[in-house]
Write a structure and sequence with these properties.
single chain, alpha/beta, Collagenase (Catalytic Domain), five-stranded mixed β-sheet, three-stranded antiparallel β-sheet, 4 helices, globular, binds 2-acetamido-2-deoxy-beta-D-glucopyranose, binds zinc ion, protease, metal-binding, EC 3.4.24.-, disulfide bond, MetalloPept_cat_dom_sf
Length: 265
């Protein structure tokens, strides 16, 4: 394996913990992680999902989590499926452009060509999901943005961040100091979406906990009854409860973490 292991990754890397599948049947017009309607349950051939929208390749009938390598030199070749409308393509390109601009082009999305070996293939599949980091050693790596429900600036940003190697903010090892998980409000069977990753698997890059991260869940993620599944612990941060997971852009810390992870100057 020539993968450069993501030692520092902002919350990513390989999970030695258990990996769970979510049911793959359609869930009708269920709200997704982003509180957006009109999409199907995430679905990918040959993969399962952890934490709702992170695809994990299936191997030998089991899900294994490959340590997520970075994209060399911060260059992410991509193509966007031809069946998206021009407006949808602009939304997707707009999210790429925010990442490029905010990192001063240290991270760059470039159109793939016939000699590109690995690229991000943005497809209108079922659901909004991505693999973590540069997950393949050759060929296309899928990132799904279902036309109804996923083609929004903030959703594209979030999935692109997974593809760059970042996991959900509220799974970082120190999260219990900042948020309290209200287990009694979680849809039964979805408790695993609130796992914490150990510091041996992920890194905070020594950045403070960020309620405003584009990678943070909403406070009502996977709620069975509309009540919060994630509460803010500290009184001074209470305002975040209604705001977290609802941002439209990268937070300042998201940008700092991207730059740190990709060794940008
Ligand atoms: C923030 O997101 C909006 C779309 O929701 C986009 O139009 C705007 O350009 C973004 N801001 C930055 C600084 O990229
Ligand atoms: C093809 O794409 C790669 C990135 O995958 C890039 O480095 C290379 O310069 C491109 N080649 C041409 C001829 O544009
Ligand atoms: Zn996600």
């Amino acid at each position: 394996m020539m993968f450069q292991y993501v030692k520092l990754l902002l919350y990513s890397i390989f999970l030695s913990c258990k990996v769970y599948a979510i049911p793959l049947e359609d869930s009708g017009d269920a709200l997704n992680l982003f509180g957006l309607e009109g999409l199907s349950e995430n679905y990918a051939i040959g993969a399962t999902f952890i934490e709702g929208d992170i695809a994990v390749p299936l191997k030998a009938g089991r899900a294994v989590y490959i340590r997520s390598p970075k994209w060399p030199n911060g260059i992410v070749p991509f193509d966007i499926h031809a069946s998206y409308t021009n407006d949808q393509k602009s939304v997707i390109r707009g999210a790429m452009s925010e990442i490029m601009k905010s990192t001063n082009n240290c991270i760059r999305f470039v159109e793939r060509n016939s000699s590109t070996s690995v690229w991000l293939r943005i497809i209108p599949s079922r659901g909004c999901w991505s693999y973590m980091g540069r997950a393949k050693s050759s060929g296309p790596q899928d990132l799904s943005l279902q036309p109804t429900g996923c083609v929004y600036h903030q959703v594209a940003l979030h999935e692109l961040m997974h593809a760059l190697g970042f996991i959900h903010e509220q799974t970082r090892p120190d999260r219990n100091q900042y948020v309290r998980i209200q287990t009694e409000n979680i849809q039964s069977g979805n408790e695993h979406n609130f796992n914490i990753f150990p510091s041996t698997s992920v890194s905070t890059l020594n950045r403070p906990y960020d309620y405003g991260s584009i990678m943070h869940y909403r406070s009502d993620a996977f709620s069975s009854n509309g009540l919060p599944t994630i509460k803010v612990i500290t009184d001074t941060d209470k305002d975040w409860e209604s705001k977290m997971g609802r941002g439209m852009n990268l937070s300042d810390q998201d940008v700092e973490k991207l730059k740190a992870y990709y060794s940008c100057s």
